[in-house]
Amino acid sequence: MGEVREMSNSTTSLRLADVAEAAGVSLATASRSLRGLTGVSDEVAARVRKVAEDMGYVVNTHAQSLAGGATSIAGLIVHQIDDPYFTEIAAGVVHAAEERGLIVQVAHSGRDPQRELRQLRSLAAQRARAIIVAGSGYVDAHLEAEARRLLATYERNGGRAAVIGRHQLGVDALLPDNRGAALAVARHLVELGHTDVTILSGPETLTTVQDRLGGAVQVFAEEGVRHHVVATDFTAAGAGPAAVQALQAWPETTAVLALNDSMAIATLVALRRSGISVPGDVSVAGFDDVAVAELLFPSLTTARLPLAEMGREALDLATRPAASRPRRKTVAAQLMRRESTAPPRSDGPLRVRTASAS
Amino acid sequence: MGEVREMSNSTTSLRLADVAEAAGVSLATASRSLRGLTGVSDEVAARVRKVAEDMGYVVNTHAQSLAGGATSIAGLIVHQIDDPYFTEIAAGVVHAAEERGLIVQVAHSGRDPQRELRQLRSLAAQRARAIIVAGSGYVDAHLEAEARRLLATYERNGGRAAVIGRHQLGVDALLPDNRGAALAVARHLVELGHTDVTILSGPETLTTVQDRLGGAVQVFAEEGVRHHVVATDFTAAGAGPAAVQALQAWPETTAVLALNDSMAIATLVALRRSGISVPGDVSVAGFDDVAVAELLFPSLTTARLPLAEMGREALDLATRPAASRPRRKTVAAQLMRRESTAPPRSDGPLRVRTASAS
DNA sequence: GTGAAAGCGCTAACAA
DNA sequence: TTGTTAGCGCTTTCAC
């Protein structure tokens, strides 16, 4: 007699066994048919497929994976899901994943190392076929150690990982040349004749911040450019007010260099709203070249990183067999000279209107 | 005697049994300890956790899920992953998911109904706990039928689904008031005194396009405003050139109404580059109020939809038990009057410079 | 070409 | 408090 669950309208899904029974074949034959393997007559295979289709059967990937197969999941961990830097990388990853029949799980760490570890564990627990970690690492080697260990175990168990912008994780890495980018942007400002630059920086616990800041400061020091460093949270949120405040504190500023585009854009907008002209009164430059950078008015001078291609390439690395030792590829940045930078005013630096002070 | 796999340096992960053995307890005790269930002495539980930690054990969620548990996966299907409309929704979903300990799988359909079905099947196959489908549906009821059927099966098997902007799917729905949004924006243009409007539209196979277009056309017809409809692909890519071309074809145009912000922004930029002033020569308005809309110069007049909140709310719906019949909630749009719209030139409509013709 | 049966790693009765 | 054991739904030998 039939199954206990026959006629059940409960919460249980159809199993392959149900399909097999309905098609009058064995479990093995049903499995082979549905996966298009050889060793089944075309006739039988077609019938099984039709029955499955008609019944609305959907395979259970967990059973599938447990029984031996690999999953088709790629994991992506980003710092902040709503930051264009990461959405553009994510788009690249998702597109590349799709071409390989992988589906992408997106997790975000909010720049919290502990949460990042949790996400990593979760992806490992799901036996994701590939894991990509994007975004700056932490200067504190201690914080990186546990992630490194997790990834090592993960790869030892057959997983593959690639990182974007993380140096210490012991897996294939795509490394944006943050220092080189900073050199290029800083030199650009120097060449324009700027002599007083405010740098909008982020937490120096992040390697990206260190690299970019280091490069910029080096150039300014060498060239005798006076500069102030203002620490913010590395996001758009705090950058606008910070920029306006900095211009009040150091009215001799002729240019603002934000260490990422989100902050640069926030600065652009904040200055506009304060009646400060860019680049007339003050020049503004950023890093990354997110998509909107060139759409703004004035369009943003920035050091371009090919974000979507980086995402694509990271997935590429992570779906290729591991090399004998981790691959490391440096990604060059390209200076995009646009409208937001120009020579400083010939009649001296801007004096911020005190009217806009709080 | 030990296990065959002991000392193995192969590709096989540690199993719970390995941990149990190492800790000198049974499988059940190990399982209980690791999941923090009661019925284990604190001492034993702590020891097991430590052993697992030291060994680098990571649970296999597939085995876990097969054995009875629910997954902690939420699926999100969007049309286009790199469109800000969807990234903002995605951010809302991811944040809300995180609060519930869910991880989000993002799939994108590229506005291809077939691919959407594949993604839906994949999510169902993974026994995702919740599925969210975001983005316009298809006017052709036939195309919606299969998705509807899949979702019905999925929910019958214990899954939960919610959709954003899809009317026909038979599950909980968040429905942006696209028609109302169009009425508001169109009326705004009428009130400003515009008499000749070019509408940048999308494929009329999409319900969102139909709703927005219908609303706008109704207002213009009622108010005696002349209007042309230009069909594009509903993305930024085609909108810029289309807008410029339209202004050449219909030089009496005093305002461009794009049916989404991506197109409106592309229009803004294209006009600027063609030397056409906004709103001086031509007004521009859009739909959605993506984050950059207010950062542009001129800032964009648009009908605001609370995208991130919609994502959050959709996940909310999809993690709540199903109601006896699908919930439907209309989301109101709010007109954001900004700088890109103004009364038409008093000295008559713009005559496009023929110099910018190809 | 097809079928029977042994796992995959875990959870959840049920026993002790 | 702890242990034993029967599945969960599938893939995959190994027989036939």
UniProtKB/TrEMBL annotation, chains A, B:
Which residues belong to any copy of the HTH lacI-type domain?
Answer: 14-68
Identify the stretch(es) annotated as Disordered.
319-358
Pfam families associated with the record: LacI, Peripla_BP_3
| Molecular function per GO | DNA binding
**Keyword Transcription on this protein?**
yes
Q: Which UniProt keywords apply?
A: DNA-binding, Transcription, Transcription regulation
**Official protein name in the record:** LacI family DNA-binding transcriptional regulator
